[in-house]
Amino acid sequence: MTETTLNAATEQARADTLLAPRFYRTDYAAMESIDVSPVRKQWDAMMAEFDRDENREHFRKDIQFDPADLPEEVREDFLDLLVSSVTAEYSGCVLYKEIEKHVKNPDISRLMNAMARDESRHAGFINRSLKQLGVAVDLGFLKREKAYTYFSPKFIYYATYLSEKIGYARYITIFRHLERNPQFRFHPIFNWFEEWCNDEFRHGEAFALIMRAHPELLRGRNKLWIRFFLLAVYATMYVRDHSRPKLYKAFGMDPTEFDYRVFDITTAITRQVFPLTLDTDNPIFRRGLEQLRLISVAIDTAKREGGVLNSLRRAVLSLKAAAVFGRLYLLPTQGNELPEDARMAPAW
Q1: Is residue 253 part of a domain?
Q2: What is the Cα–Cα distance from 16 to 13, expressed in whole angstroms?
Q3: What does the DSSP 8-state code read for residue 337?
Q4: Minimal CA–CA distance to 223: which of 158, 293, 291?
Q5: Which band of pLDDT confidence, cut at 50, 70 and 90, is reported for residue 105?
């Protein structure tokens, strides 16, 4: 592994683009005041699952893989997926450790320790796979040098809950597809996805219970924020997945069908806590996501070509994207009555 290649992977992970995973800070004093007593029974059952740590040995196993076996046509998209994934996992690890360090609330401290443990394990596992392919991300450098975004606690709850749950939906959809079609399993890392995504599911459960313990987070104007985060996460995923066409061809999957399957699973899961869902089957919604994709492609082209005129073109395209996003945001949503018990099982 060359230093140049290592730095290239780390620089990709450090980049702050619209579609790249971010690192976060929050209001730790507010996290200190979280009270989970309204959901104590479910909380204690969830923490017992964290304590059992049933995937402890799973991620200690080494992946045996000859880098020469990776099809050259999929290499770039696959590495992009892994670098994005290791950044997202390590972002969670850093956030959870920072919260744990700054709070004395025993429920929250214990939870954050367990989730940081899982995310650190995931990030290290992906990075070992990257090293086999001759690249790696310098996680220590990333922690020191990547820009941090401040999010208020409620934004952390909405965004991280969605990130964990949609992560589960993505991993389990890929895993089930490759179970049925093993000829498309071009790398052994996909064999780890079931246990991996069950960790993600459990992390989402933690934020679901925090929100259910504080129902004011799910009412009034906060419903507008929930709507925003749902749309932002879905739109980002759609655009990003369609930027990796060779990856999904190698999977034997259509990225559009994959995304809407993931949206369906995520919508079903989020009914445990969110008072509304998006109508992702609405033809206007689907046309809007496709418009955002085409605008993103045009922006990338203008960025590559450079020059003053293309800078102006990018600005105009960005405004057009904001207008499309705004129209999608104003589409009718579907109301949801929350179940009495917020807990769910990873049943997909």
Answers
A1: no
A2: 8
A3: P
A4: 158
A5: very high
226 token code pair: 């929930």
* Among the listed residues 52, 43, 51, 106, the one whose alpha carbon sits nearest the alpha carbon of residue 343: 43
Model confidence band, residue 4 (pLDDT cutoffs 50, 70, 90)? very low
52 CA to centre of own chain: 24
| CA gap 336, 268 in Å, rounded | 11
Q: Which domain holds residue 151?
A: 3-216
105 CB contacts (<8 Å, ≥6 apart)? Answer: 31, 32, 33, 34
Q: How far is CA 192 from CA 126, 188, 289, in A?
A: 10, 8, 30
Query: How many CA atoms does the CB half-sphere of 79 hold within 13 Å?
Result: 22
Residue pair 45/171 in contact by the 8 Å Cβ criterion: no
3-state secondary structure of 54: coil
User: Both tokens of residue 127?
Assistant: 């990075």
Q: How many domains does the chain have?
A: 1
277 within a domain of the structure (yes/no): no
The set of residues, in sequence order, having a beta carbon less than 8 Å from that of 14 and lying 6+ positions away, is: 141, 142, 145, 146
Within-domain flag for 344: no
pLDDT at residue 6 above 50?
Answer: no
**What is the band of 16 on the pLDDT scale with cuts at 50, 70, 90?**
low
Question: pLDDT per residue over 178-228, tens digit each?
Answer: 999 999 999 999 988 888 889 999 999 999 999 999 999 999 999 999 999
* 237, 259 contact by CB (below 8 A): yes
* CA distance linking residue 216 with residue 50, whole number of Å: 27
Separation between Cα atoms, residue 86 and residue 94, nearest integer Å: 12
Helix-helix angle 308-329:283-305, to 10 degrees: 160
- Specify the pTM: 0.90
Does 244 reside within a domain?
Answer: no
